[in-house]
Every structure is written in structure tokens, then in C-alpha cells.
Amino acid sequence: MALTIAPCPFCGSEHLHIHHNGLSHCVVCESCKTCGPHSPALENAIGHWNQARRPTSTPDPADLHPMAGLWATGHG
Length: 76
Ligand SMILES: [Zn+2]
What we know:
By secondary structure, the chain is of the alpha+beta class.
């Protein structure tokens, strides 16, 4: 079974390797050192990596205003 690993979603590099610590695998980019999601199954680790996307150009409002979440769920 051939597993295709998508290029790094952050820098576009195809210099990737599989890191494993005995319990889980993850895809690591050699260029920007990004480490993908860990998964016990190699296939899943690659799958998660392939599903990763570059950050959207529209930031989440919650990132701009961390207090926004508190305002929304706090005072009643
Ligand atoms: Zn990269």
C-alpha cells in the first residue's frame, strides 16, 4: 500500500520524514521543522498531515480578542 504524503502545508517542502517515538507517529518537515499530528497508526498520522491546510488569511476573532470568549460565556 502506497502512502502519499502531501507537501508541508506551511512551507511547501517535500523534505518530510516520519518521526516515531515508539507509541505514535507523526510527519515532520525537514525544512521548517513542523511536526504534524501524532497518531498511533502511521496511516492516520499521514492522513492528518495531508488534511492540514495553511492558516486561513482571516484570523479567528477570538484570537484577536481573547476576552471575547469570556464576554460571551461570562457575565449573565
Ligand atoms: Zn515545512
